Amino acid sequence: RRQRQMCIRDRNNIAPNTTFETAVIKGLAPDKGLYFPENITALDPSFFDTIETLSNEEIAYEAIKQFISPEIPEAVLKTIVSETLNFDFPVVKLTDSISTLELFHGPTMAFKDVGARFMARCLGYFNKNNSNEVTVLVATSGDTGGAVANGFLGVRGVRVVILYPSGKVSNIQEKQLTTLGQNITALEVEGTFDDCQDMVKKAFLDEELTSKMQLTSANSINVARWLPQMFYFMFAYKQLKNKYKDIVFSVPSGNFGNVCAGMIAQKLGLPIKHFIASNNDNNVVTRYLKSTNYEPKPSVQTVSNAMDVGNPSNFIRIQTIYDNDFNTLKSNLSSFSFTDKETKEALEEIYQTTGYVADPHGAVGYLGSKSYLTTNKEAHCVFLETAHPTKFLDVVESVIDIDIPLPEQIKAVIDKTKVATAVNNYTEFKAFLTQL
Ligand SMILES: *Cc1c(COP(=O)(O)O)cnc(C)c1O
Question: 176 φ, ψ to 5°?
């Protein structure tokens, strides 16, 4: 059987190549590097020439199979793909030069549903003989927790433990991650997102724990969460290819998993002219492309809080795609950053000029599109609407005088009872994991 090699990229690049299965179950390589496909083979150009004749499921299957088949048999992979993608990915035109790709039609109304659902099903398959029981640990500032909770609910042999900072996620987000029960447990941490993240990192390094249980992560460092995010760049292209020549994606970026997945789609041959990484004040990449110095800083809090990341974990993968060549990267990626004030003004501008209600992350993507268009007038920019505005209601309603009706997905959880265990430090967290 041909083994699909996932190779590991980090500073040392010393860990051995491994299979997709191991990469998904372990999350991180033994030397703490990120897994990355060893080979990326472009699809036949005819695939993109005739993409409008294919269903989303067919597109996704063709795009991802080289990384996963035959480890997951074709028929199983087809089922995983179609169960993952059972909602819409519409492109909405706002102006002649700007459209938005709505990624919020899934169960928790953020793009992370796609990767979470895909990864959960892969893990479920690898545990089919109950030989790979895993505990997924997730620290969340909001969206990841809900998407992972929902995506992994009821998956056999997978236990999910979500850590979230008490009082720092929105009411809707808290309900999405604390009300499901079954194999999902929420831990409410008296502290910040960074405290949650630190506890998770510490657990991965704690040999007393890892000798007893298989821990993995469901953040975008996990290949099975990250890679399927390339699908919707293709779905957008399918809708736009006969209308515009130069398609540019503006991606509101935090950990840079989404934009990096788009670049994989481009490597597979998707005709994308350029990428824009749109940042809030957490702008290490914007500064890097200006100065050539990569200088991470501690994160600062903004109104687009899912992008409050000081040191994006997927940037190393982006550098790998461009063979660490600054100039090649820069010719394919622009980056702009925007303040909270500008973001709120953009929410209002979008609403006043087009009637569209964006969320704060989408608004940052809109601003990135506008900045790029000032010097690239021929382009058609598509910004990713990464979450539904309902999820950031307080920000949106502070700017736009409108009542947003609660979507069905939110109605389904909003009146449920929160169940969460308080955890205040690593000792308590470890005690909790040990008794699972
Ligand atoms: C996670 C998230 C982002 C950032 O995505 P990355 O892949 O981490 O760059 C942007 N917007 C929303 C709403 C998110 O939940």
Answer: -65, -25
In this structure, the number of other CB atoms found within 10 A of the CB of residue 66 comes to: 15
The answer to whether the beta carbons of residues 106 and 88 sit under 8 Å apart is: no
Tens of pLDDT, residue by residue over 23-47, are 999 888 887 788 999 889 999 999 9
Per-residue pLDDT of 71-108, as tens digits, reads 999 999 999 999 999 999 999 999 999 999 999 999 99
List residues near ligand 1 (CB under 6 A). Answer: 110, 112, 143, 220, 252-258, 306-307, 361, 386-387
Entry pTM: 0.94
Q: Which atom of ligand 1 is nearest to the CA of 361?
A: 11
Instruction: Indicate if the alpha-carbon torsion angle 10, 14, 15, 19 is positive or negative.
Output: positive
Run of H or E including 340: helix 340-354
Tokens (6 digits) for 124: 């479920």
The atom number, within ligand 1, closest to the CA of 309 reads 8
- The Cα diameter of the chain in Å comes to 60
